[in-house]
Structure formats: C-alpha cells, structure tokens
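Batch job 17 of 40 flagged for manual review because the log was empty.
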Amino acid sequence: MKTKLTIDKQKLKINGKLIYSEIEGNSVDVHGLMMNARFIQGIFDDKENPQKYARFGWKQWDPERHTDELIKALPLWYSYGLRAFTVGLQGGMPVFTIENSAINNNPFSDDGLKIDPSYLNRLDRLIRAADEIGMIVIVSLFYQGQSPRMKTGTIMMNAVKTASQWLKDQNYTNIIIEIANEHTVGNFKNRPVICDPESIITLMEISRQASGGIPAGCSEGGAEMNIEVARASDIILIHGNNARRQSYCNFIKKVKSWTLNKPIVCNEDSPCFTNLDVAIDTQTSWGYYNNLSKQEPPADWGIANAEDLFFARRMAGRLGIKIPKLPEEEQYILDGVTGRYELNGERWVRLSAEYPELINYVDFFQNGKFIDRAYDEPFYVNFTNTWTQSGYKTQTGDIWNANIYLLDGRVLERKVKAE
C-alpha cells in the first residue's frame, strides 16, 4: 500500500505528513484536516431489482461500471483537495426516488459470517484505487435502511467481526471503519445492539480486535454525538445534516469542549458548503453530501452539477489550491431544469451559487408563473431540508427563471429552457 493514515492527537497524517501540508504556501490552519465526500453508493447493487436503476441515461444497471466510474472520478476530486470519501457496505437511501425498504443492498449472509464476494471485489478495487492517489476511504458497515434484513443482534455482531477481519486481511493502511451510519436513527432505534451507546462501543472494540487496530468510529444523527461514543472512538465521526453555520459551530464547540484530543471528522453534511468554512475555522474536517448527484443510483461521480463545482472550488480555495476566478455570470446557475435527473415528469430545480452567503432570497418562476421562494442555502424549489427537496412537474420547453436578490440590493436573473 502507498497511502498510510496515522493519527497525531487532533490531526491526521498521510505517510507521516500532516494532510495538506504538502500544498505550498497554504495556511497551517488546514494542516492535518481531511476534507471528504459521501460516496456511500460506491459499491451499490440491488440483485432483486437491477433494472430499477436503468435510468438517468443508463440502459442497463451494472454495479461494476458504477464502481469503475467512481474510480475514474477520484483524481479530479483529489485535484480540488478531496482526501477522503465514505463508502458503505449497505449503501444509503436514494431519498428522492426510492424507499429503502424496496432495496436489497445487504451483502451480509443470513448469519453475518460471510459477505458477498462481488461487493468485496468492488470495495477492494475502490480502496486500492484511492490508495494509488493518496486518498483515505471511510468504510461504513451498516445502514439503517438495510438493518431489518439482519434478524438478530448476534448476526450484526458477527457481521462487524467478519467485515473487520476481511479488511485486516487485505493489509489496507488507508481506511477508517464507521460501524454504522447514524446509529441512533430510523430502523436502528429498534436494534439495541446498534442504537445503545454502550453496545456501539462494544461493536467498535470487536472491530478493532478483528481488524488489528484499524481506526474506528460511529456517527449519530445530524449535529448529535454521545460523549461516551466519542471517547471510545479513534476518530470522532460526526454528521452535520440540517445544521446551519451557527448551529453547526455550536455543535463543534460542544464536542471540542469534551477535550478528548482526537480528530473530529464530519463525514456527512449537505450541499451547504459554507459549513466547510465553519469546519476549517474550528480546526475540524468536513464532509460534502449531495443526495441527488451522489446517492441516486446510478450516481454521477464526477463534478456533476453546479453544487459539486462550487463546493470543489470553495474547498480548493480554502486549502490554498490555486483556481481561476469565475466571472459573475458563471457564479450563479439555475440547475436541475436540464440534465440527467428526471423521473416521472419531475425535476429537482435549484439555484446554485458560488457565494450563497451573498444572497438574500431567490424567487422561482415556471413559464412566468411564480412557483416558490427560497431564503436559505441550498436554494431549492420545494425545500424539505438541507439535503432533500420535492420534485416539480416540468415539461420539455418550459421556461424557468430564477430572480436572485443579493444582499447588496442588486437583482440578477437566470433563465433556462427545459429540454
């Protein structure tokens, strides 16, 4: 292996050097942080309903191609400063279009003692591809949407040991184990072996013993963390879903007040990339999460839309990676009207901005008719929360307008024709 992760108190190192210290002339404030993204569906499959994912430009679902396209996208993300990503053995829920109960993305056997070799082969290719370019992979073992397929706590304990032992046997040096994605939410609430803090601490210890000491942690719901779980973690994994800058900052201050002297890594937030600024200002790592482009199989693993682009540019700029400035006309993009994401006549319309903090509010119009007003980043039509929105019926030929009311008093307009 070429990439070795080590922990130095609150900082993270790759091959003995603080992450980002290799970037000439940047701020020491970013040294030892690890900006990352949620690519949770990187080895996704659904053998019961494969053709359900023949959509968004794909004529046939192919899990191997899906992983290959993520591998191809990694160097581009690396060039903007991304140094890690999270992938799940049980994936995550494509919340815009498909209920997780209708998906079978569980690679564990009925007793938890085996894992589907096809999943492991994809995971191995992904981890080794990341290793080649100097990236870390956070391997998440359980997702609440798939937990009903594991009938007992003993099965889940077996699965932790099985997965951790396999990861050890591959001699990986560039991984972190996340026992469960948000162990306190959804179907996990009915599973004491996962939901209970003392039990999740036990699972972390089982993982460490089976893996030979691979760093382990476990996330809770957005802006939540149990002090005992944090104390037992090698790396404190947190999520920031639905937290705005101030509430996210308050959450970080709370976790830091415990003085545990460990890295704090957010590995899931939302497209609200101004929270990245809060993370850097508080000397913590941050995880970008674009539910539409990265969690709806087949995902578009590259810099797929305006939100991805503006996050990548914000990240690069804060890390000291030189990027050309965009003219103002390219800093605001009416997104979701055209492109690959359309289902049952609905599209997910939003206004993406390189500097969302400069916007007061955005008004959306369809064929001249007022549809919605968005006050907060991300500027969605039919806002639900920071990572989801409802679709809106749109036909080919519809004209969408976004009137952007800036804090300086100016009003900009963006217009797109649905194709």
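Reviewer: the log was empty due to a logging misconfiguration, but the result itself is present. The CA atoms of residues 247 and 322 lie 30 Å apart. Unflagging and moving on to job 18.
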